[in-house]
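Whiteboard transcription, Tuesday session. T.W. wrote the structure tokens on the left side:
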């Protein structure tokens, strides 16, 4: 009910500018006249991106393996640079030197009770012409695993999450001194060896379970899109969420030639125990060699074996050695100078490096980026003059852990703090619904753009399709909210792609966008993610690639040309209110859960349900969490809501005369607005991870890519650091009060 009350307020406030179908209303932040001009240029832009080019660009960029440091990675960077120049744009390459390990030796064998040697090899497939480029393919491995040589009994740990280890304790199973085998997914892969090491394991295997991305879901490659028995998911296991992403040897500064470098021993983000990814072909004999308790029902996959937990009797030998080389990453950067506000930057990026051929990840996003650049170059020749500076970036080294973008952000941190208004990221693209994530001050803006893009399959707007699909998928009260709220809620951003440095380290309002959801895929980070796969099983006619280029290009132009940057704080305040309520519910649920468990221990429930043939251990008794004082946060949210409404009213009333505003006044107002995301950061950063400075969004220490909203309070509660959580509530509330004051000042400059 309280959510409903907030929604009514928002609806009445948003109606004038965002009523669905009223697409000729002036754009937010534009006077009616400049809005008209803007719409004309945007229409011209959207006619330019061409599926034929998207297809040919993908064929070229994914023709050979192009991981960090490979010949074709450099070749691609130079080819992208040449395209940008051909489009008439000012472009250059920026190079950083980063630690990038590649495998020297990989051995995985079962030594007891039977002998088995893992293949660790993805075979070429005759029908797929790039799958046989053996000499250039990186072997299957997890980057930033340490060297190691361990032999130990095996334990199956489900997805390897903290709660899985709690369950193992109940089963009386310890992983101390063991090698664990975990399934991919449910958490970011680097969390699995991290949690395993915290519980005393000495090695970690991660396998692709057919139930998650193999034959259980659809036919396997090459007849279908799913992972075949030999397919392996490569990937980074850098502990970026507890430390920082980017080059492990130069945290916080750009990895330039003269940068001071840590030794590998000093680097905090390297994984602690050796870890290796394997196929389900290699995993099955190992899992079949386990006895001990049966795995809980929800842990079991669909291999034709009983899933036991262990430990042993399977004993495994894992030996890994890496080349610990410093390799170049080549970011390709375009700068289109702004005509009236060159010191306000709109930045857009997608990476170009891949684990192998990478047609889906990342080239299905890199090709649209190139088409956007071509289209912007065409408009510039026709006389379009963006008001603000536009920067396009094709990042290198995203796959090992955001190396190219993070080093660029760290090297340009001072300039970005002064000038960066918005960063827009994509990372690959597929067929289906429009998916929006980002800073909530941009929620209204990106909803507006989505209303102007046509969905290739239904011909309705991509917003309408996403809206109707949200109604279909919503449950209970949420459905009412989806129907009545003017804007679709956008996801908060965790990590896992190149927005991280911009949003979490500097505090640049960011968006992460893409289409997808209609096709299953089981080729992620394997040699089979290539042109053959993409053109048979994904956006085969590249119409969603065109839709992506249209969406992002429109967003970039609309942000670059607005008189007043189109941030909105009403949706933002509504979201922060929701997060504050979520935290209070999290604490209440925890209190209830522990109170209940303690009572059951008193009542003897565990003694009564104990099966002596399947022995389990009763859970430990715990202290019920204390109450925390959320009042400062609640009060700050009230202030924020008032300020947001005041600003929106002031902007709406001023809309018709925005073009008459003095350029100095506009500049000062936009500078304040640019600062609105910076105000949500704190120089000291989050507890124990100072690189992460945003107080509202961060990747979770134990989820990795998954976001934690109001992270210092949320993780304080989750990790039972209640005194810290209490203090963090006050710190977050202070930042929100400062945000409120900034929004009031922005409103005031419009009111006069
Ligand atoms: Zn990617």
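and on the right, the sequence the group agreed on:
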């Amino acid at each position: 009910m309280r959510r409903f009350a907030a929604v009514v307020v928002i609806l009445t406030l948003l109606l004038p500018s965002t009523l669905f179908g009223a697409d000729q209303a002036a754009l937010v932040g534009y006077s009616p006249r400049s809005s008209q001009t803007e719409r004309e240029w945007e229409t011209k832009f959207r006619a330019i991106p061409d599926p034929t080019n998207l297809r040919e660009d993908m064929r070229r960029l994914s023709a050979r393996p192009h991981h960090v440091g490979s010949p074709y990675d450099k070749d691609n960077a130079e080819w992208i640079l040449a395209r940008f120049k051909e489009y008439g744009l000012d472009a250059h390459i920026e190079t950083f030197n980063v630690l990038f390990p590649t495998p020297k030796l990989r051995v995985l064998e079962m030594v007891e009770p039977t002998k088995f040697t893992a293949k660790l090899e993805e075979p070429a497939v005759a029908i797929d012409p790039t799958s046989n480029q053996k000499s250039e393919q990186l072997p299957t491995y997890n980057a930033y695993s340490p060297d190691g040589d361990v032999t130990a009994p095996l334990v199956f740990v489900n997805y390897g999450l903290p709660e899985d280890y709690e369950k193992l304790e109940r089963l009386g199973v310890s992983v101390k001194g063991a090698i664990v085998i975990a399934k991919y997914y449910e958490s970011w892969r680097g969390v699995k060896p991290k949690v395993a090491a915290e519980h005393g394991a000495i090695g970690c295997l991660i396998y692709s379970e057919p139930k998650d991305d193999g034959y259980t879901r659809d036919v396997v490659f090459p007849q279908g899109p799913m992972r075949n028995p030999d397919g392996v998911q490569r990937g980074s296991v850098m502990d970026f969420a507890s430390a920082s992403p980017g080059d492990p040897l130069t945290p916080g500064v750009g990895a330039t030639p003269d940068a001071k470098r840590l030794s590998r021993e000093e680097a905090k983000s390297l994984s602690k125990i050796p870890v290796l990814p394997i196929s389900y072909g290699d995993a099955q004999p190992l899992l079949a060699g386990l006895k001990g308790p049966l795995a809980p029902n929800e842990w079991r996959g669909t291999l034709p074996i009983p899933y036991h937990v262990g430990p042993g009797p399977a004993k495994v030998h894992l030996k890994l050695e890496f080349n610990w080389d410093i390799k170049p990453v080549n970011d390709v950067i375009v700068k289109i100078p702004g005509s009236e506000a060159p010191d306000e930057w709109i930045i857009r990026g997608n990476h170009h490096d891949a684990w192998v051929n990478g047609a889906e990840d990342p080239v299905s996003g890199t090709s649209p980026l190139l088409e956007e650049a071509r289209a912007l170059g065409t408009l510039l020749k026709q006389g379009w003059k963006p008001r603000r500076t536009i920067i396009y970036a094709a990042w290198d080294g995203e796959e090992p852990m955001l190396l190219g973008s993070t080093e660029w952000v760290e090297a340009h941190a001072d300039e970005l703090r002064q000038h960066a208004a918005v960063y827009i990221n994509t990372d690959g693209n597929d067929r289906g619904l429009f998916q929006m994530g980002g800073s909530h001050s941009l929620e209204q803006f990106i909803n507006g753009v989505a209303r102007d893009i046509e969905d290739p399959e239904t011909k309705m707007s991509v917003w309408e399709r996403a809206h109707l699909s949200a109604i279909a998928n919503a449950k209970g009260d949420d459905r009412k909210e989806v129907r009545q709220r003017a804007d679709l809620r956008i996801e908060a951003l965790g990590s896992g792609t190149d927005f991280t440095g911009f949003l979490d380290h500097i505090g640049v309002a960011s968006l992460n966008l893409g289409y997808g959801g209609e096709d299953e895929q089981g080729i992620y980070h394997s040699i089979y993610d290539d042109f053959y796969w993409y053109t048979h099983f994904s956006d085969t006619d590249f119409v969603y690639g065109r839709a992506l280029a249209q969406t992002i290009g429109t967003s970039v132009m609309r942000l670059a040309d607005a008189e007043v940057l189109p941030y909105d704080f009403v949706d933002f305040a509504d979201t922060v209110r929701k997060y504050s309520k979520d935290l209070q519910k999290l604490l209440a649920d925890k209190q209830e859960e522990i109170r209940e468990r303690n009572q059951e221990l008193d009542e003897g429930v565990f003694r009564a349900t104990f099966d002596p043939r399947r022995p389990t251990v009763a859970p430990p008794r715990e202290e019920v969490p204390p109450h925390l004082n959320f009042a400062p946060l609640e009060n700050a949210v009230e202030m924020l809501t008032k300020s947001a409404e005041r600003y929106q009213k002031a902007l709406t009333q001023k809309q018709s005369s925005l073009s008459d505003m003095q350029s100095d006044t506009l500049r000062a107002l936009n500078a304040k607005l640019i600062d609105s995301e910076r105000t949500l950061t704190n120089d000291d950063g989050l507890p124990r991870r100072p690189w992460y400075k945003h107080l509202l969004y961060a990747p979770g220490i134990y989820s990795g890519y998954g976001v934690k909203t109001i992270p210092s309070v949320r993780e304080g509660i989750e990790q039972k650091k209640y005194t810290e959580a209490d203090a963090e509530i006050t710190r977050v509330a202070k930042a929100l009060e400062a945000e409120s004051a900034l929004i009031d000042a922005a409103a005031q400059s419009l009111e006069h």
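Someone added at the bottom: Residues 92 and 333 are 5 Å apart (CA to CA).
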